[in-house]
Design goal:
The complex is a heterodimer of chains A (91) and B (514).
Chain A (H helix, E strand, L loop, with lengths): L1 H35 L1 H4 L10 H39 L1
Helix pairs in contact in A: 1-3
Chain B lengths: L2 H22 L5 H6 L6 H12 L2 H14 L1 H28 L4 H6 L5 H34 L3 H49 L4 H11 L16 H14 L4 H4 L8 H32 L2 H7 L6 H50 L6 H25 L7 H23 L5 H21 L23 H17 L8 H13 L9
Helix pairs in contact in B: 1-8, 1-14, 3-8, 3-12, 4-5, 4-12, 4-14, 5-10, 5-12, 5-19, 7-8, 7-14, 7-15, 7-16, 7-17, 8-12, 8-14, 8-15, 9-12, 10-16, 10-18, 12-14, 14-15, 16-17, 16-18, 17-18
The chains are: A mainly alpha (91), B mainly alpha (514).
């Protein structure tokens, strides 16, 4: 049973670690880029009339939704492994 | 107060009291009182979480901040929203699996003992009360401005309502009041946003042009740097915002109100959708206020900008819409403070009364009675405090709450769940150092020490309004040092494995042997 549990934790780690690193970088790059490259962030982006600063700030919202959704999909698989562990323990 | 306002208010009060009456009949066990017996669906709980989280400060404050500061105001909302991913990824499911009613349960499932429970209870209690009092004070001012009711009457009405919801209806009533609030708030802001767009013939470019004319900042309105000119302060605030939610007891105890972890995830995902859409609409309202009213008119009514949304409603929809928006603001306040009352109540009556004083042996009936009396006491005392604090500026307590949550509760929760070597001494030193650091830093900071009207009229020792960037590492460091310097009581490897497995899968320890 411990093997299945190890498998669960490995799979969780394989998703969560990169996800968290991406999340922190994506989130903190916004204030950092505003602090260090204010000029560039005030340039109009490829969407006309929208500066990079606004685009990046807006992107945080779909980013949150997407990451939460990906986690939701992944978790269904985690839940299946948990069921597996429970079955093994009953044996 | 004219008749429209009065009818709206009465309507809300009557509706929420009907909910409470219905809930009271369903709150006859402790399980139902503290967690609605896990009976909510994920989506319902998601709405309730949003209702618990979006305070009047978010609704009115952020619209005003955007209207005054433009771009920077919007950044506040971003931090609030992204913080939910931290809760979802790291904290939510283990908390649901390990606890029954309170955060004390979660930590004590690894480090049982009265000391730990005291600390967790005091932490949850403090955070909830610190957050509740400024909300009550703000509500008093708000209702005075909006409806021309006396400060003390508004505080007593709101304090009374929140107490009634919790005392009689427990978590069931609180949840449904919060759900109703989310529905009303979202539909109200959506309606108002549509009206703003229709005023510009649905042409966003026109709206933006008009904004530039309405604000003294002109083109600069859409550029960053009007609210956060100090980079360190800016980063510090963003850090406290993104980590704070994961330590807020009143949000985390909502995770016990659903059946399983699938519903926990659904709750958080629906709340990120609601909160995200809500903040997009506050942006529209903020821009709309500047475009349609102009900066001067808004600041003339209230220099903090808190009245931006109501003023906008009056401008585009007359007295009726203003009454409607005021009623929404009122609902927003009562839903949030009710959530805080139940969180403080759980900390006191479940952790301190049931587990510490009665050593976990009180009966269902005694627990329920204790919980109701506690709720009554907490409601009464906070209302009294709010009445006394009319003349004192307490808004800094809101940012203090986030810092305390991020620097004491969050590190301890995170390390308890994930760090194998963590021990009880570390948990205690982490809580204490995080709590002490945030309090000391705020006292030494410009909120309290300010030559210009501060409680201590001197130059601030620490110039940060949001000392999160210092306090959060101190919390973690305290937890780490406490752990490595107290190697005398290691937890056995097997014990941790059992705990960790429970936190990750929900499988109860010892079930293998049975």
């Amino acid at each position: 049973m411990d093997e299945t549990f190890q498998k669960l934790m490995q799979e969780k780690k394989r998703f969560l670690l990169p996800a968290l690193i991406f999340l922190f970088i994506f989130y903190f790059m916004l204030p950092l880029s505003l602090i260090f490259f204010p000029e560039a962030m005030n340039q109009t982006s490829f969407v006309s009339g929208v500066t990079w600063g606004w685009l990046y700030a807006f992107m945080q919202i779909p980013m949150t939704w997407t990451m939460a959704w990906i986690y939701h999909i992944k978790s269904k698989r985690f839940d299946r492994i948990v069921e597996e562990i429970k079955r093994e323990e009953l044996l | 107060m004219n008749l429209t306002y009065f009818l709206f208010l009465i309507c809300i009060i009557v509706c929420t009291l009907i909910i409470t009456y219905w809930a009271a009949k369903r709150s006859k066990t402790t399980n139902r009182f503290y967690t609605a017996a896990g009976s909510l669906t994920g989506f319902q709980n998601g709405m309730a979480i949003a209702g618990d989280f979006i305070s009047a400060a978010s609704f009115l404050g952020i619209v005003g901040t955007i209207a005054i500061n433009g771009y920077d105001g919007f950044l506040y909302s971003i931090g609030f929203l992204v913080s939910y991913l931290i809760v979802l990824f790291l904290i939510a499911e283990p908390v649901h699996r390990l606890g029954t009613y309170s955060l004390g349960d979660v930590i004590c499932s690894r480090f049982p003992g009265n000391k730990m429970r005291w600390l967790m209870a005091i932490g949850a209690f403090m955070i909830s009360i610190l957050y509740m009092i400024p909300q009550l004070v703000a509500s008093g001012f708000l209702l005075r401005l909006l409806l021309d009711i006396d400060y003390s009457i508004s505080v007593v009405v709101i304090g009374g309502l929140m107490t009634i919801y919790v005392v009689f209806g427990g978590m069931v009533a609180t949840s449904w009041v919060q759900i109703v609030k989310t529905v009303v708030l979202m539909s109200g802001t959506f309606l108002l946003s549509l009206i703003v767009f229709s005023n510009f013939n649905w042409n966003v470019a026109d709206l933006i042009e008009q904004v530039k004319e309405g604000t003294p900042l002109g083109d600069q309105f859409f550029f960053p740097g009007h609210l956060f000119d100090n980079p360190l302060e800016f980063l510090s605030l963003q850090l406290a915002l993104v980590l704070g939610t994961a330590g807020l007891p009143h949000i985390l105890i909502r995770l016990f109100t659903v059946r399983n972890t699938l519903e926990v995830r659904r709750s958080l995902i629906s709340s990120t959708w609601i909160i995200g859409l809500f903040y997009l609409m506050t942006l529209v309202l903020g821009l709309g206020t500047v475009a349609l009213l102009g900066y001067q008119k808004m600041v003339a009514a209230d220099p903090t900008g808190n009245l931006a949304a109501p003023l906008l409603a009056k401008e585009v929809g007359g007295d009726f819409l203003l009454a409607f928006i005021s009623a929404i603001a009122f609902t927003t306040i009562v839903a949030v403070v009710a959530g805080l009352v139940i969180s403080a109540t759980t900390a006191f009556s479940h952790d301190i009364y049931h587990h510490i004083i009665k050593k976990g042996k009180s009966t269902e009936k005694e627990q329920l009675r204790a919980a109701r009396w506690t709720a009554l006491g907490i409601g009464f005392i906070s209302t009294l405090f709010a009445l006394r604090l009319e003349t004192i500026n307490v808004t800094f307590l809101v940012s203090l709450t986030f810092i305390v949550a991020a620097s004491s509760n969050f590190p301890v929760l995170l390390l308890t769940i994930y760090w194998k070597k963590f021990n009880q001494v570390g948990a205690i030193s982490g809580m204490v150092s995080g709590l002490a650091a945030s309090l000391i830093l705020v006292v030494l900071g410009p909120h309290i020490m300010n030559p210009d009207g501060g409680w201590i009229a001197r130059e601030a020792v620490i110039s940060l309004h949001n000392p999160g960037i210092i306090a959060i590492p101190i919390g973690f460091l305290g937890a780490y040092l406490g752990t490595i310097f107290s190697r005398n009581q290691p937890q056995s490897e097997a014990e941790y494995q059992r705990f960790f497995k429970k936190s990750q899968t929900g499988i109860r320890p010892g079930s293998e042997s049975s």
